[in-house]
Amino acid sequence: MSKISVLIPTYKPGDYIIRCLQSIEEQTLQKKLFKVYIALNGSDKSFEVYLRNILQKFHFTYVLFFLEQAGVSNARNFLIENSKEDFITFVDDDDQLSPNYLEELLNASSETVLGISNVYNFENSIDEYKENYIGKCFSKLQPLTKSKYKSRKYFSSPVAKLIHRNIISDTRFDTKLSIGEDSLFMAKLSPRVEAVKKTKESACYYVFEREGSATRQKIDKKKELKRIIYLLKEYSQMFFTFQYGSLFTLSRIIATLMHVRSLFK
Question: How far is CA 154 from CA 13, 131, 141, 142, 248, in A?
Fold first, then answer.
């Protein structure tokens, strides 16, 4: 029986998605233990045909959904609700996984423990990255034991993690946001995480620094200020509910305020 739902939102995918899917094909974890769910959102039908032709080459179990409404948060929420395995891992369509990624995350995770892998950024190819920077992880993660304090760096992004469905519960990505929704999502599920455990160093999530990706687009200052105000309101509400760690939530507020300063540089 499958244990892991691999959730991939995609919009007008390029050839990079082939490398992403190939890295999933090469997982050391038995294919019967995971299932891939892909949500093609906001694209025309030609991309659906493109994806179906690509997917025929792979042997893992998958489901492809076509959503008319665009938006990564909408796609992720749909995939959470239309997958069924106990554990969930989010993968961006232009990123790649080490062969032991799923296996090591499964070993590190439980109903209350968040498994986290190492993360590397690359611009051209993973092979080129390994040749020049192997062993230089940009974020050295350390094991955490049970604690009432949450480290912000562990909860900034939903990728490079294996999250039990009980931890996610009814938490969903905020569709009002196109930037910052990741950290808000992770912050809201943090009270149900008792500990964070890292995988072996060899288990890696490779982030493709792709030109044209959402994180590298030019910022509209007016929209950015509106986004910051919205996030400050959300984090402030969390701070005063006392359900979340006060130091953790305060660190979120400070990090969000730092974006205001960057707008006026």
Answer: 28, 27, 8, 10, 11
- CB 40 within 8 Å of CB 48: yes
**Among candidate residues 140, 99, 106, the one with its CA nearest the CA of residue 120:** 140
pLDDT in tens, 181-236: 999 999 999 999 999 999 999 999 999 987 765 555 566 788 888 999 999 999 99
CA distance 80 to 107: 22
Helices (H), the chain: 16-25, 45-55, 72-81, 101-108, 126-133, 165-168, 181-189, 221-241, 246-263
Compute the distance between CA of residue 101 and CA of residue 118 in angstroms, rounded to an integer. Answer: 9
Would you call 90 helix, strand, or coil by DSSP? strand
Q: What is the DSSP letter of 67?
A: E
Tell me how many degrees the CA angle 23-203-143 measures, rounded to the nearest 5: 150
Are the C-beta atoms of 72 and 176 separated by less than 8 Å?
no
In sign, the C-alpha dihedral spanning 53, 54, 55, 57 is positive
Amino acid sitting at position 158: P
Which among 97, 84, 87 is positioned nearest to 21, based on CA atoms? 97
132: tokens are: 């020049």
**What phi, psi does 263 have (nearest 5°)?**
-70, -30
Q: What is the pLDDT of residues 16-64, one digit of tens each?
A: 999 999 999 999 999 999 999 999 998 888 999 999 999 999 999 999 9
CB 14 within 8 A of CB 97: no
Core vs surface per residue 19-56: b (16+ CB within 10 A) or e: bbbebbeebebeeebbbbbbbbbbbeeebeebbeeebe
Contact 188, 98 (CB under 8 A): no
> Which position has the token pair 């030019």?
218
